[in-house]
Amino acid sequence: MDDLAANRIEVKGLTMAYGGDVVLDALNLPIPAGRITVLAGPNGCGKSTLLRAIRRLHAPQSGQILLDTEDITRLGSKALGRRIGLLPQSPSAPLDMNVEELVRLGRYPHQAMLQPWSPQDDEAVSRAMAGTGVEAMRRRRIGSLSGGQLQRAWIAMVLAQDTDVICLDEPVNHLDMAHQLDCLELVARLNRDEGKTIVLVLHDLNLAARYADNLVFVANGRIREAGNPELLMRADLIAEVFNTDAHIITDPIHGRPMCIPFRKG
């Protein structure tokens, strides 16, 4: 995992600040190609800021981010948009926009003044809607959708962008259990069938352990530990990162570690 050739993204010495508050402090993180990397940690530890930095939505105080060994600051905005897609935590769009119009926005990085909408754009949009199961609702206004339907439409927009790297910030936030599983199974299928490199922020530690190939614990703006979920799901480490006691068992269905949090006394 330390071999540059095996990493799609390398974050090196990244420091990010809002005003005078340092959010990420000289953070280093390799993100392996073709795997699912899940960022986990307490609120305010810098997970979302890290995703936004990878997509170059915030300029760092210092450090660099490499995409396939190339510094992302050397890429134009649309060139970067053709290689890294990001779904932020609370995306917004006009409620009277229909699903197909929303998904078509994902093709923006592929558009140019002298390059009109093409059959390839239509194909990418159709493929994204089919892959997320929103084809039948293409004419529905997004304001009429349920939470699960809307989240699938947003993911379809990111898929239409047709990038090798997909970053999703809390994609299952506010979804019920069934829709959480539907969403994460979709993400896993994109990784398995299309070889997408996925970077996820998840608050649910058990879902993180189930779906991650590479689990990353972020605490106080730094990487506390990263690696296989079987190695990271330890009571002592969870107590340190999340400030809570935990009992670790094995998920009887998936064979992955599960965390049962509790308070002593």
From TrEMBL:
SUPFAM superfamilies xrefs: P-loop containing nucleoside triphosphate hydrolases
Lineage: superkingdom: Bacteria
GO CC list: plasma membrane
Predominant location: membrane
Gene3D superfamilies named among the record's database cross-references: P-loop containing nucleotide triphosphate hydrolases (3.40.50.300)
Domain ABC transporter: 9-245
UniProt entry keywords in alphabetical sequence: ATP-binding, Cell membrane, Ion transport, Iron, Iron transport, Membrane, Nucleotide-binding, Transport
Membrane topology: Peripheral membrane protein
PANTHER family named among the record's database cross-references: IRON(3+)-HYDROXAMATE IMPORT ATP-BINDING PROTEIN FHUC (PTHR42771)
Similarity comment: family membership: Belongs to the ABC transporter superfamily.
Record protein name field: ABC transporter
